[in-house]
Amino acid sequence: MLRVGLTGGIGSGKSTVARRLEELGATVVDADQIAREVVEPGTPALRAIAERFGAAVLLPDGTLDRPGLGRIVFSDKDALADLEAITHPAIWELTATRMASARRRGIAVHDMPLIVEKELSADYHLVVLVDTPAEERLRRLVELRGMDEKDARARIAAQASDEQRYAAADVILPNTGTQEELVQAVDRLWEERLVPFERQLITGIVTRRSEKIDEVLREWDPTWPQAGERLIARLRAALGERGVSIDHVGSTAVPGLLAKDVIDIQIGVHDLHDADRPTFVEAMAAAGFPRAAGH
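RE: above sequence
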């Protein structure tokens, strides 16, 4: 199963992307929906929230006044931390259950706004960012959702910065045009990257990019070190102590040097035979790095 993390700031259009991916055949696990489920009437989390923030955060029918609670926590870091301490354990438990129940073969998309804030990038094979400028997100929240501008600004400020999201994302989907253009970009992502990646996980056959990147030298790209860091984090998570050292090497690791657009990663092991052990090979393949034929 290919695990895709889908993220983006509030008002970015992430829901549109998730909806289209589901239409294309992905299993979508919606973090916001799960967050609503764990605070339904009668749940331990809702009782704890009422005890911490008072009965005023409950509506007359006993449900959570989400906008009212939001006005409290998104302008107070301590209050937000208290809320997260109550809800996050329940959210992670239900999320794990939903992800585990997804098809073994297929593409599972975790629609998760806080991938960057919670440093979860290494949990996925690929992280997709829906990228919309903050001022446009603010406009959408106020004009289309009817949110108070002060509240909208507080929610945006409480989330990760654009720079932090760029560093964590493998794929960036700009969303400054029409919804149709965004859907078309999702379709291309599905056909050109997600489906081939999922096929690679199933077959163990390495997917090659169509363009001849190994024949072209490019100007040094400042995003290469970030790509190297993302790959290293995933390999560390997959290998654990089997990977003694994991480093970004080669031309893309040298600032200012012309290089082929390929990130080279070097893994150190205790003994060269360790790299041939089935547990090592299987862990690499499951993380999206199958061994090439003949190696």
